[in-house]
Amino acid sequence: MASPRLNTRAFSLKRPALLFALFSFAILIALSSVSINQIQHDWRQEQHTTLTLIAKQQAEIISQQINHSLSATYLLSKQIEHDQGEVIDFAQQASYLFRHIKGIDSLQLAPNGIIEHIYPLKGNEKAIGHNILQQDQRKEEAQHAIQQQKLTLAGPFRLVQGYYAVIGRKPIFIETQGRSSFWGFASVVIPIKQLLNSDNLKILENHHIQFRLTTQRHLGEPVTQILGNTELQGDIFATTELFIADNQWRLELAQQYPSQHLIAIKLWAIAIILSILLSFLIFNLASYPLRLAQKVEKQTKKLSRLAYFDNLTGLKNRTLLQLELADTLQLLSQQNEIEQSHHIAALVYLGVDDFKRLNDAFGNKIGDELLLEVTRRLHDVCSKKDIITRAGGDEFAIILPPQSSLKSIEIWLQALLKTLGQPISIDGHQLQFSISAGVALLPQDGNSAEVLIQHANLAMTHAKQKGKRRFMFYNNSMEALVKSNLSVELELNKALKNGELVLFYQPIVDLTTSKPIGFEALIRWQHPEKGLIFPDAFIPVAEQSNLITEIGYWVLEAACKALPNFPPHIHISINVSARQFMDPQLATRMKQIIYQYHATPNRITLEITETLLIENIEQVVSSLKNLRDFGLGISVDDFGTGHSSLSKLKVMPISTLKVDRAFIMDLPDNKEDKELTEAILVMAQKLQLKVVAEGVETAEQRDFLVANQCNFGQGYYFSKPVPLDHALAYTERILIKK
């Protein structure tokens, strides 16, 4: 969590950028206000211009429509003038005009001002006989038309037919003997309805544009006639004049603005959002150097943590362990001799036993969870003064501050290993594991961090070699042993390449017939200088390295080569180490070797130690079933010395138990060994397993085993391990003798 001081510092660094962003925001808002006002003004101007153009366009349309309709009066008058006042085929002529000229309600001829001819007549009968010059309320307009001798447009007014219309009257004059005399009128009736229902005016109404069409009559009642809305309401007005015939008309349009309040809100909303975004951008640009510096600082802290802390557990790593050790040594060096003698500091180096095997068997995820659980348990056991670190892989290191005595460290270590070694369940897997520890005392066991870590690690390695689940204190002899083991390992590696390893064979006999039914292949090292070396001197070293795996495959290969020399009923047993079972290619490589030498699988028996059944039983069972199905026999060696349970034996794909010689050597005199051996034999019979008793050295031991229905025996009573040629001679001699 960041401190208030750091937060205040960060704010003070950002303050200039924030003030600059606020100033920019104010400027942007002011510019937005000017821009919005200008936009509204320009919009109103544009709307007014648009409405004026619409008004002129609509006025032109109305003028064209009326003038087009009035053209019928010209055509009729010309026909009458042509016919010298005779009305010939009026109906036919009117019908033709009626069809081709739109917007006409009726055509009329009024000789001497009296309406005598109307087309169409239907619906206009009342107008027949009407005297325009005498009876009409607007006779002055008719008189004016005669005087002016030109077309006049009267109306709008209600006709005798009952509807409003405008009437175009064209006075007709006939030339007779050089004189022009008034004949009458040719009239066209244009209903107001035709103008009001025009598509163009409807379109205006759909766009919320109101209109008003007015005309001022020159004669008669001085009343302004209204077409459209009596009162115009709106924010924008446009007016245009129409000159039709002898009349001056005016078209007025009005349109309301959309809600100015809503538009203003939208414009201001857009302006504010854009101003905020631009201000934010300005703030980001202005504060970029600061953010870059903070990012660099954050990455530096992250890299520093990666350099000194473990990514999985969060513990201090090996680098920080060395620094902490150096600091502790520095503090100890400042104490006087009395203080140093009464207080003992220590470096405890911990390792999970067989962690690689667990990790390979169950996967990295389970392995990581196991390490996290160990970390949690370390936090539970250790005090706040203890420095807990992850030294690497499955290894942890704890720096214990000065303690009162060595005994107190031992008691603490016993409690630590007991707590850490408790079983754990991860993703349905019940894991049993153990911890081994090595201890280096400060400053007795090293005057530098590197040396202390090396010595504590060495002590842990010796604890693992001594059987695991324990702790050991460092002593000088450990280094000598390490050097000796390293020398043996190097020589053993050469021996494997130079063919110095050999197999000896010890017979396994049928106790009832004393005939050999098989041989156990036992490895020896024929050293060119030291002579014959027994496995106790080099197998433990091979177990600590990967050499044991290659030696195991060499033993199988040598046994396959020797197998054809023995009678067909003889099998060969070979020992397979627990470390070799960690090889994921175990079954594949064994099958390849057996195929290579054309060996019969059921003549080969694999001997595994009982301790292999304790840990990772699922993987062991899977591998053994694979090999058993291939045809190999499976035998449990040194049975009785480990901790295998009856339930584990029931699920194991084994065919034979080999009772350890420790139970046989004191038979039949030792009562406890006698009872244990009898119990093992009864159990094996119940499980239908064969039993081989190891270490048979006397006839009394053999007789006891036979009496308790033990199948087979192995030991010096029959033969010690011998080279191949001696084993073949033994077999031939016993079989011929029997």
Automatic annotation (TrEMBL):
Gene3D superfamilies: 3.30.70.270, CHASE domain (3.30.450.350), EAL domain (3.20.20.450)
Protein name per its UniProtKB record: Bifunctional diguanylate cyclase/phosphodiesterase
Lineage of origin: Bacteria, Pseudomonadati, Pseudomonadota, Gammaproteobacteria, Alteromonadales
Pfam families (alphabetical): CHASE, EAL, GGDEF
All copies of domain CHASE, residue ranges: 111-201
Residues in EAL domain copies: 485-735
Superkingdom of origin organism: Bacteria
Keyword Transmembrane part of the UniProt annotation: yes
Location relative to the cell: Membrane
InterPro entries documented for this protein: Biofilm_reg_signaling (IPR052155), CHASE_dom (IPR006189), CHASE_sf (IPR042240), EAL_dom (IPR001633), EAL_sf (IPR035919), GGDEF_dom (IPR000160), Nucleotide_cyclase (IPR029787), Rev_trsase/Diguanyl_cyclase (IPR043128)
Keywords assigned: Membrane, Transmembrane, Transmembrane helix
Keyword Transmembrane helix tagged: yes
Domain GGDEF: 343-476
PANTHER family for the chain: BIOFILM ARCHITECTURE MAINTENANCE PROTEIN MBAA (PTHR44757:SF2), DIGUANYLATE CYCLASE DGCP (PTHR44757)
Membrane-traversing stretches: 267-288
